[in-house]
Design goal:
The structure is a single chain. With about 200 residues, this protein is of the alpha/beta class. It has two domains: about 1-100, Rossmann fold, CATH 3.40.50; about 115-190. Helix content is about 30%, strand content about 20%. The chain is built from eight helices and nine strands. The longest helix has 10 residues, at about 125-135. The chain is globular and about 50 Å long.
Amino acid sequence: VGLWIAKASALPSSPPSLIEYINDLDIPVWVAGTTSWRQLAKRGLWCTGSADGLGEQEDPDLSSIAPGLKKWIKVTHCNAGERQHIAVPDGEPCKETLGTYALKSKYTPESCPSDLKTATHIFWGSGSAYAEALRLSEGLVDRVEVHGCGPGHTFDALRDAGIPEERIVITLNFSEFCDRVRRPGARTLSLGLKGSCVIN
């Protein structure tokens, strides 16, 4: 079995011997991006590779990384639906989803950050963050002019929510999103990043 870890915090910190166990058994570990890779490495986990934030639809040819492996398990949140399964070409190991944490709302509409209510440019770290923001901020759909996200599930979630593709800027991270929307001629607005915020 191999582990495909969607976010560093998805790998539980207990029992304390879990990372040692994964390393000792030489279980292949693939992570969503380099940020998660660094965080897991600090915890002592050996990561085999990363999707580099490109999304799960990118074929990393996992069968060449771990020949003979029969199963990859995606470690993610409990609310990850069928759509969150990793698509694999015929002949590659099947993948299952293991939810290790539940998504919980941090805010009510009254207590949500004020910049969420005024932002015109938002980089979304996940589709669930977008869904939560819709619940918290009336008028968000009409007010936000530019939505940023990675090329994977978050992009699919925004597109499925009806956001026109010309209003979505695909980047690998928030910093790149800021650079893209600030650059002249790169689908920017005269407001620049005034009122922008990050939703993780």
